[in-house]
Design brief:
By secondary structure, the protein is an alpha/beta fold. It has 11 helices and 11 strands.
């Protein structure tokens, strides 16, 4: 991680790129290939794909908009990350801790003007960034809302918080818009990805996406206060019994040149949702499982590893039926 003492005019940068981004997103929706499912449905005519989005592209379903203090420290700082959780998802992870919104679809349908207002409200609350959680499947209305907010002065870095199942075409829309990429890299082997998330070719799609993300924003840059201004943080959620292929993923990342990148190795797994139906993941992590992997990453030469306390499996469990889903 690098530290620099400088200011970025995010408003100017984003305004210069937003019209191009919106145009690309609209074209992308004509034959939707936003994610690795490649549904190829015309979502501009309200066709429903794997993500189950039925609202028109001037509306969007939001489960929560709040200052969030459970993200990586350089996103949160003292003020919090201005986080918007979007309802539904393009994956079907059996262990999803956000299943209330990803599967059950909890949330409120709002227009893009209201979403723009949420962005601006979070800025007024001194959020360090605007953090878009699970935005892949609703990127077009998000970009339209972002333009409204930018024209009203929004000047914060944009965080793209994703499961990693993003296509090259979608990422082309985000070039010059997203400042900080926060992708998951969930699995290496296809049989695990399909078994637990119903995603075909997950690693091939996700690793290509992550390489594109890094080419756009580079490795993480912090300001003098330790707050992220740009770059990539790669997340990996560790599953029990190495069901997330963790050791192999670290080897792949090393071989692909990510030793200097920031890697967030997450211990917060909790057997939520349908995980109880799979004996091999129907428990929390053991301390030794997690500690061994951290040491392995360090032995491989990774320079910027973020780790969690084992208590995070309880701390980070949300309840989206509450006004404030996370209790920190």
């Amino acid at each position: 991680m690098k530290t620099k003492n400088y200011k970025i005019n995010y408003n100017k940068k984003h305004l210069e790129n937003i019209d191009r981004a919106i145009e690309k997103a609209k074209a992308l929706y004509d034959n939707c290939i936003c994610c690795g499912h490649l549904c190829k449905l015309n979502r501009n005519q309200n066709k429903i794909g794997r993500c189950k989005i039925f609202e028109d592209n001037n509306h969007i379903k939001v489960a929560s908009h709040t200052l969030h203090f459970g993200e990586e420290p350089m996103l949160v700082g003292k003020n919090g990350s201005g986080t918007i959780f979007f309802s539904n998802c393009n994956l079907n992870c059996v262990f999803c801790q956000n299943y209330q919104i990803s599967s059950a679809g909890i949330g409120e349908i709002i227009d893009i003007e209201t979403l723009a207002l949420y962005f601006l409200e979070l800025e007024k609350k001194c959020a360090n960034n605007i953090n878009l959680v699970s935005a892949s499947h609703v990127i077009y209305p998000i970009l339209k809302a972002l333009k409204i907010a930018l024209n009203k002065g929004l000047n914060l870095p944009i965080v793209y918080n994703t499961n990693g199942y993003d296509t090259e075409e979608l990422l082309e829309c985000l070039d010059g818009i997203v400042d900080i990429y926060l992708p998951d890299l969930k699995y290496l082997f296809d049989e695990k990805a399909f078994k637990y998330s119903r995603a075909e070719n997950y690693f091939k799609v996700a690793i290509k996406a992550i390489e594109i993300m890094k080419s756009q924003v580079g490795d993480l840059i912090l300001d003098d206060s330790g707050i992220a201004k740009s770059g990539i943080i790669i997340r990996h959620l560790i599953l029990p019994n190495n069901q997330s292929d963790s050791y192999d993923i670290l080897i792949e990342l090393k071989e692909r040149g990510f030793l200097a990148s920031t890697i967030s190795l997450m211990s917060q797994y909790n057997p939520e949702f349908k995980a109880k139906n799979f004996d091999e993941i129907n428990r929390k992590l053991y301390f030794k499982e997690y500690n061994d992997l951290i040491n392995y990453a360090l032995d491989l030469g990774f320079e910027n590893i973020l780790s969690q306390e084992m208590e995070s499996s309880e701390t980070y469990l949300p309840d989206f039926t509450r006004e404030f889903p996370f209790q920190f």
